[in-house]
Amino acid sequence: MPIDTSRENVVFLHVDCAAFPGLGFRPLAKVQLSYNSHTAVGSLDIVNADWLGTNEVGVCEYMFQRLGVPEGTMVTLSYPGILHSTNSIRRKLAGARLSRAEFDEIVRDIVSDRFSKVELTAFVCACAQNNLDRDEIVDLTLSMTGVGQTLDWGGGMVVDKHCIGGIPGNRTSPIVVPILAAYGMKVPKTSSRAITSPAGTADTMEVFCNVELSLERMREIVEKEGACLAWGGAIDLSPADDVIISVERPLNIDSQGQMIASILSKKKSAGSTHLLLDIPVGPTAKVRRMEVAASLRRQFEYVAKEIGLHIEVMISNGEQPVGRGVGPALEARDILAVLENREDAPSDLREHSLQLAGRALEFAEGIKGGEGYGEARGDPAQRPRAREVPGHHRGAGPPQRAAAAGAVHF
User: Which of 151-160, 309-318, 371-380 has the weakest average pLDDT?
Assistant: First the structure.
């Protein structure tokens, strides 16, 4: 059926189909479709129209792709059986602490599309309501990292930069990544689409170019250019995260525990060894008080250490939007103005990007604390001697060119 269900498996049966209600199927019940080794579970919708035959089963576009069989295939309909992981969700709703094994089971069922949106929402709300202690966040992060694909860059430093979001116009990644790549760092940057703000980094980058890259294409770009910006949802890195986000977005919630697991599982799966994290604090930001930001920083540092990821956290001013534009197209204009070093470029976006890039450059051996900003800015008076990053691709020019458009390839 040509219906977009936003990553939810939906099965359609005609009201006069013998399987309904003869076999006890009810609307919104879960139904399993099987053909040889192909199986998929979806929520049942009942159709009272002639566009679906009484001996046919329809599926949404997402489920059709996941099932992987041609149209017209004879399939078996059955009950999917009881999901034991729903017991864990009920326990979490009651305030219980979950184990690593329980998180593993929940994440596997999420990735296998065995949860309905109702069950997914219950899991998201249970974690948001009762929150997760820091060891539960570690377990959830490792569970999410353990499914889907992972990238291995063959050793050496692999850097990423991430902002927890919530501030309109705060599109620093498309500026920071070219600076780091021009210096010689390897930056396989994966970004999300918007959750609680008008645009995510992937949404804004899509104004310029395709961000739905395959794993092979992403690797090819990074090996050639030193870095890339891609939508993480297209690469199947930590795939449970994208399903969870599809529930969080309409609810407009982003609980701290799941946010930490989401970010760190994606970075770990992408093969990153070093991460710079930006936490904006402001009256309308995700984090509204400095004491909350300090607590969140400690949680990020604890979980990152437990999963083997070096992290530096910057707490920044999030009292107002950054740049002049809000939304993908207008934010893209601001980004180009900064990269082209135009005089009319928004100074707040330029300055914040340089601060972040400078902090990330200090991951490199030989750049002392406080020297990174001058290196990122390209000011000969502030910039120390140009250095190669051991084992890494050197950019298309000296570091002082990093902030110019020559470091950007669309």
Answer: 371-380
